[in-house]
Amino acid sequence: MGRPMTTPVERRRHRILVVEDEPGLAESVRYSLETEGFEVLVSESGVGGLESARVNQPDLVLLDLMLPGMSGLDVCRQIRYSSDVPIIMLTAKDAESDKVAGLELGADDYMTKPFSMRELTARIRAQLRRATKSGALSESNEVLRGGSIELDIDAHQTRVDGEAVELRPKEFELLESLMRRKNRLAARHTLIDEVWGPSYFGDTKTLDVHIKRLRQKLEQDPSVPTQIVTVRGLGYKFVDEQ
What we know:
The chain has eight helices and twelve strands. It is α/β, with parallel strands linked by helices. β8 and β9 (163-165) form a beta hairpin. α6 crosses α7. The longest helix is centred in the middle third of the chain and has 18 residues, at 117-134.
């Protein structure tokens, strides 16, 4: 008999702090991100957002520029004194000086209102991947599991029934996107945004080719997939019946 497999502790969902004083927008962002599998905290003021960042230790902060009591720029500056957490600025202003000021204070990205939730989600996942690769989130030991498949995010390793399987970078990112939506539809446009970026305008057949490669490497019978299944006309779904 071989050695018994160790079972890493599965990490909590990524925690996103939304600092936004427009209740309608804050609720829309919360709902969309929770649907995508994130844990979401909301604060409506700069002072409250700063305190929430200190107490709750989020994995990423969405920070409005115009806030009551303390501006988003001041919040960003204060957070950067003690934390390298990724920060995405949200602003209704399109002036270059505002964007530059936020980036110079340590923000990692910015989005101008109104924005697409698809693009926002893609940028959030991109920032979280960068933070993990740089070591900012490496202590999380995040492992995604479904059926016979294990995806070790921090070690960038894939296992099927305990055996290592080599995946190319895009294949790994695609499988991660699918597994984070376990048993839920992953729309084609969402997968393309997250894996190839919101500015990708290439042939969408690229997605289908990568799905085929994943099935060949992960499924017992790639011609009759049971874990990476097609939702006809809409996208794909990672199925875990356990």
